[in-house]
Write a structure and sequence with these properties.
Blueprint (H helix, E strand, L loop, with lengths): L11 E5 L7 H13 L3 E4 L10 H10 L3 E5 L15 H15 L6 E6 L5 H4 L9 E2 L4 H15 L10 H15 L13 H14 L9 H6 L10
Parallel strand pairs: 1-2, 1-3, 3-4, 4-5
Helix pairs in contact: 1-5, 1-7, 2-3, 5-6, 6-7
């Protein structure tokens, strides 16, 4: 986990989404607009302190993020036992309680679904919270996330760009990603390598500048990326 979460509370966005192969391409579309806004994504994959309970780390992470994004498209059972995954609803409830407890002063939540109507059957309480439907479209998800952040993050904090420029830069990232020889299964880029490439692509556009100062370079060390020949 990041060493000093409390230093970056105003800039951190907690991400709650499915960790599976089917959602992998949308994972990039969820994270990239955060980096493009000169903000700092944080999710359960970033919580890796072995001597602390995972739930404790989630509480710490969410309470040190001013914003959170929740993708709630997994509602059906899976596998031989037909179990539904409950981690995402648990994290959503934690974030919503924090937002309501602080009267949305210290935390703001956004909700995303893959279809416009199914969530009304499995999470009807979301109906009054205006969940945003991305239809499993990467470009649309990039746009929805960036524009929501633009609307709620103070302009003194947020890197304001035309949405179309952010979507175009996302395509640059995706093109460069195909040239990365990753350390994951079958040479796929790991979570850390994908995040590093996002940082670099947005740094090149002068959109993300957290390594400009010494403490930023210490907090966000460069992750080596190996390119294909």
């Amino acid at each position: 986990m990041r060493k000093h979460l409390e230093y970056y509370t105003r800039y951190q966005v907690f991400l709650n989404y499915p960790f599976d192969d089917e959602f992998a391409r949308l994972e990039d579309a969820l994270q990239f607009p955060i980096v493009a806004g000169n903000l700092l994504p944080l999710c359960a994959k970033d919580l890796s302190t072995p001597d602390r309970p995972r739930l404790d780390m989630l509480v710490t992470a969410i309470s040190n993020c001013h914003y959170s994004l929740h993708e709630l498209s997994r509602a059906k059972g899976e596998g031989d036992d037909n179990f539904a995954r409950m981690n995402m609803p648990i994290e959503t409830g934690m974030a919503m309680f924090y937002a309501l407890h602080t009267q949305r002063r210290d935390h703001r939540c956004a909700f995303f679904v893959s279809t416009p109507h199914e969530y009304q059957r499995f999470a009807s309480d979301l109906a009054g919270l205006d969940p945003k439907c991305h239809n499993n479209d990467e470009d649309l998800l990039v746009r929805l996330v960036y524009e929501w952040l633009r609307d709620v993050v103070p302009s003194t904090v947020f890197n304001l760009q035309p949405t179309i420029s952010v979507v175009s830069r996302y395509h640059v990232y995706k093109d460069q990603l195909t040239n990365v020889k990753g350390s994951g299964d079958n040479g796929t880029p790991s979570h850390e390598e994908r995040r590093e490439l996002m940082y670099q692509v947005c740094e090149e556009a002068k959109w993300w500048d957290w390594r400009a100062a010494m403490n930023g370079r210490e907090e966000f060390p460069v992750v080596p990326i190996l390119l294909k020949k």
